[in-house]
Amino acid sequence: MKTNYHTHATRCMHATGSDEDYVRSAIKGGFQVLGFSDHTPWKYRTDYVADMRMLPAELPGYVESLRALREKYSDQITIKIGLECEYFPDYIPWLKGQIEEYRLDYVIFGNHHYHTDEKFPYFGHHTDSRDMLDLYEESAVEGMESGLFSCLAHPDLFMRSYPKWDHHCTTISRHICRAAARLNIHLEYNIGYVAYNEAHGLTTYPRPEFWHIAANEGCTAIIGMDAHDNKDLETPVYYERAVQELKELKIKTTETLNLGIRF
Q: How does strand 220-224 pair with strand 3-4?
């Protein structure tokens, strides 16, 4: 079954295409399940306004739009409604309330910032030291242990900015993978950055060294498109390549996500 649970929408201010465009493209691309997981809003206690996520006031419209599309296209594709969320300890009670109020189908864990983006930088741009790697590991494990999340999105995100793979990368990756296996949290084999990698001669994520560790530690992988343009869902080459790469790793795979264990 061809599924994708990592899909963004224009409310995050860095994606292209309407909600319905993504549904139509997913059908054209042969997906049986399309999960929307746009960047969660946070009801901050400060006056901070993020530039890469919807506002809390936009969440009802997001859910309403996707419910309408789920009904409209019910005979062609299954639509799941979720969010991509960080682990921000001070704001988790508010998040749990939103998950319950809007009856979300699942939540994926995008470990982008340490505890809050109000004062901590984005791991994908600033993990250039061992201290930042350690913070990435700490927040990844804490978030998985919260029981909120169905999977850890792009678990090797730190390689977008860390200079080169070294022993410290191996150590934190092993800790993250062991925690994921212990907690039965899936790891997302994120292919949203592959085209950029190829165009620029990079190997950020999926990072082969990380995924060899994940396979050896008994983790379960799920492919995620991380679509920010509806046309991403119409291009089969990267998805098909990911299927083959996971087979070669001999890692367990799944095509399904459900709500975390604490709900």
A: unpaired
Compute the half-sphere exposure of residue 216: CA atoms within 13 Å on the CB side of its CA: 11
Show the CA angle centred on residue 30, arms to residues 27 and 35, nearest 5°.
Answer: 65
Residue of 60, 59, 78, 82 whose CA lies nearest to 70 = 78
Q: pLDDT tens digits, residue range 227-255?
A: 999 999 999 999 999 999 999 999 999 99
- Which amino acid is located at 88 in the chain? F
Distant-in-sequence, close-in-space partners of 165: CB < 8 Å, separation ≥ 6: 159, 207, 209
Q: What angle do CA 106, 107, 112 make, to 5 degrees?
A: 165
3-state DSSP assignment of residue 221: strand
DSSP readout, 15-50? -BS-HHHHHHHHHHTT-SEEEEEEEPP---SSS---
| Cβ atoms < 10 Å from Cβ of 247 | 10
Q: What is the pLDDT of residues 24-43, one digit of tens each?
A: 999 999 999 999 999 999 99
Tens-digit pLDDT profile for residues 112-168: 999 999 999 999 999 999 999 999 999 999 999 999 999 999 999 999 999 999 999
Q: Which tens digit of pLDDT belongs to each residue from 172-229?
A: 999 999 999 999 999 999 999 999 999 999 999 999 999 999 999 999 999 999 999 9
Instruction: Please choose, from the candidates 43, 53, 61, the residue with its C-alpha nearest in 3D space to the C-alpha of residue 11.
Output: 53
Mention every residue, 6+ apart, whose C-beta is less than 8 A from residue 75. none
User: Is it the case that residue 260 has pLDDT exceeding 90?
Assistant: no
CA distance 226 to 223: 9
Phi, psi of 90 (to 5 degrees): -65, -20
Query: Measured between alpha carbons, how far is 221 from 189 in angstroms, rounded to an integer?
Result: 6
